[in-house]
Amino acid sequence: MINPSRTTIPRGVFERFSQPVPAKTATTRKEKPSLFKTVFTLPIIFYALLLIALPILYVFFLSFLRSDNYGGYLYEFNLENYGEILDSTYLSIFLKSAVIGLATTAICLAISYPFAIFLRGKSERKRNFIMKLIMVPFLTNSLIRTYGLITLLRKNGVINSTLLNLGLIGAPLNLMYNNLGILIGMVYTLLPFMLLPVCSAVSKVDQNLLDAASDLGAGKVQKFFKVYLPLTLQGAFNGSLMVFTPAIGYFFIADVLGGGKAMIIGNLVKNQFLTARNWPLGAALSILLLVITFLLVKLYKKIGGNLDELGGG
Amino acid sequence: MKRLSSSVKTILGSILAVTLLVTLTIFVFKKPKENVSDTSKTLNVLNWTSYIPLEVIKDFEKESGIKINYGTYSSNEELLAKLVSSAEGTYDLVFPSDYMVDLMSSRDMIVPLDKSKLKNLENVSPLFLGQSYDEENKYSLPFLLATTVFLYDSTKLPRLTSYKDLLNEKLKNNLILLDDQRIIIGAMLQATGRPMNDVREDSLEDSLNFFEKLKPNIKAFDSDSPKTFFITKEVDAGLVWNAEALIAVEENPDLKISYPAEGFALSMDNYCLVKGGKNHDAAYLFIDYLLRPDVAQKIVDEYPYISAIKGVDTVPENELIEILNNGSYVENVGADIKKFDKLWAKYK
């Protein structure tokens, strides 16, 4: 009886067991998570705290320190790192990153919609099969796939030599080591993140609405803008969020396919940690990326997006 | 009955979850076995990737009975970060380059070498000793020397002798540079007649101007494997490390190597003992082994940098003297490193 609260917990548990199980309505489920659920979510909570929340807090803390120029830091609280971010050199990199991110998102959208509408007309078996075909290559590490793209895109690569042999071009095309290469790489790597939510949203559009639109004389273009687009906006935004955010950070694609000529925010962060030995500035840049993501998620919620869908695709 | 089964499920579930958590925790916090076993027989080495052939390490293990735990890094900064973030005693032997030797010794991270423990010390060519970063070789002994060189296709281009030759119209979108800010900014500084480690604002501004002129010619920056660009005929010229250049020449004899007249970068990697290392005796044995000419030869056969060991077939002595005179090491510039970092962002 030293600590009465210790005995009340198990008693409460047994009381719950002896009582009739309440009907599972949405409200009761939310109010009282069962012990079973609590115990099973604990490892996840533990994991999230230890490996996600704690490191982010550490990065946040780091971003207010001062670099000692030797890869370490001095415990002097200051806002200089955030001031540094606003320097015109860095701002132009943010702008470039945003342009690359937006272009990637736009191209992914332009590919995903026609594909999703095409897929909608297929039987479920065919649909599953096609989706599997799309997903399988993505089980390979993205860095390896990026290197694989080099053999296709380079000056004497598969694409250029085929086109040259067919006599379609006179000189090899510059498909990589420029912004085009970065775009190809980004779109290729991030397309599934757009395809999945857009396909799922398009497949849910009510056939009756489409039929009604057709009856009223709507053509393909009109059906797309008046029916598909408004009804699938959430899915499209969901996908855009998951394409844009990594696109401004995937430094390895800018390095490998852009020939290291274009710097995006991801490269900038990497440089602070690996060459400039300025961890606090790198941390401040990472926080900036987090803030951008956070704002985009806020926006997504505001237009009525469901956060669960964001996680599950 | 149903209720009972659900409570059984709950209890079973709880037991399962707790067991899972406990096993995970044990896995996470359990120390690797090697560390607890006989430490006198294991040597913890941290070295550059692609630097010592596996065969050399295996031979040493067989000969000495010492097991080598071999870790790698791909930049001096990565090495620094690994040493700073690991517990004392994790590593015995590391291979920092010139300026990193200076930085590490000034920050008391490496210990002075006891040269009496090295029987093969006399094999080290005196040309490599007494370099600016450690004039008395108190903390370091030279291992391999790398230099930046021009590599170009002699069937398409005249001999490259100066950085200004890189501005050639024929090289439009046809040039590769190392993806290394200190080396490339250093080269641009040398191209404009300044020293490689110049941190004055006007010098850096000049280097940026020269770089802007060169920019249309640059196809890519790559430090990992610039030779691939030559082997696949992606580019006709570049500024690359000597070993990469030699490997490319083996593949394509039309490629030629030359040195920039305005100067170029040197990078000397060294043996250094980490402070607090548990097995420095084994480290001395390994260094002594690497100082043997036959072993040094095996290393440069695979990775053709310039060996610091006498009698190893690399470059002739007179050429070496010239290289050491005309090249410069990257120097530790302290807080001015921020200037280079910002300039690099501007470059790109």
Keyphrases for this structure?
heterodimer, A: 313 residues, mainly alpha, MetI-like fold, two-stranded antiparallel ribbon, 15 helices, 73% helix, globular, B: 348 residues, D-Maltodextrin-Binding Protein, domain 2, 2 domains, twelve-stranded mixed sheet, 13 helices, 41% helix
How would you describe the overall organization of this protein?
The complex is a heterodimer of chains A (313) and B (348). Chain A has 313 residues and is mostly helical. In chain A, 73% of the residues lie in helices and 1% in strands. Chain A has helices at 4-18, 26-31, 35-62, 80-85, 88-120, 124-135, 142-153, 158-165, 179-203, 207-215, 220-247, 251-256, 265-274, 279-302, 307-312, and strands spanning 66-67, 73-74. In chain A, strands 1-2 form a two-stranded antiparallel sheet. In chain A, β1 (66-67) and β2 (73-74) form a beta hairpin. Residues 1-29 of chain A have low confidence and may be disordered. Chain B has two domains: 37-144 and 269-318, Periplasmic binding protein-like II (D-Maltodextrin-Binding Protein, domain 2, 3-Layer(aba) Sandwich), CATH 3.40.190; 146-265 and 332-347, Periplasmic binding protein-like II (D-Maltodextrin-Binding Protein, domain 2), CATH 3.40.190.10. Chain B has 13 helices and twelve strands. Chain B has helices spanning 2-29, 33-36, 54-64, 76-85, 98-106, 181-191, 201-214, 227-231, 242-251, 280-290, 293-302, 317-326, 337-347; strands at 42-48, 67-73, 93-94, 110-111, 141-153, 175-177, 218-221, 237-241, 255-258, 264-274, 306-307, 327-329. In chain B, α3 (54-64) links the parallel β1 and β2. Chain B is globular and about 65 Å long. Residues 31-37 of chain B have low confidence and may be disordered.
